[in-house]
Amino acid sequence: MKSMKTLQGIIPALLTPFKEDGTLDAALLEKQVAYLADAGVDGFFINGTTGEGLYLSASEKRTSFTSCSAFPRGGNSSASPAFSHQRR
Question: 13-26: string of b/e by CB count within 10 Å (b at 16+)?
């Protein structure tokens, strides 16, 4: 049986930022994640925990994950992204 890691601590649901043309704003997402990582959060729920996941393409979800996985730069060195609302 596969062991699952238990999530614990402060893990905020991120709003996915979009540009005016409707595309993912990866730079703004990285800024948001850097701010939260510096504040000491323990992880991030990304890609749709606030409802926008249905409107993201697979490519945008990968970009979002890549943008978030580069952090934290400071703050909590163990913070990491966690997906939700994903079908396998």
Answer: ebebbbeeeeebbb
Could you give the 3-state DSSP secondary structure of residue 58?
A: helix
For the entire predicted model, the pTM comes to: 0.74
- For residues 59 and 63, what is the distance between their CA atoms, to the nearest angstrom? 6
Number of domains in the chain: 1
Cα–Cα distance measured from residue 75 to residue 2, given in angstroms and rounded to the nearest whole number: 31
Contact call for residues 11 and 44 (beta carbons, < 8 A)? yes
Are the C-beta atoms of 48 and 56 separated by less than 8 Å? yes
pLDDT in tens, 11-37: 888 888 999 998 999 899 989 888 888
Q: Which domain holds residue 40?
A: 30-73+79-83
The β-bridge partners of 43 are: 80
The residue written with tokens 């890691």 in the block is 5
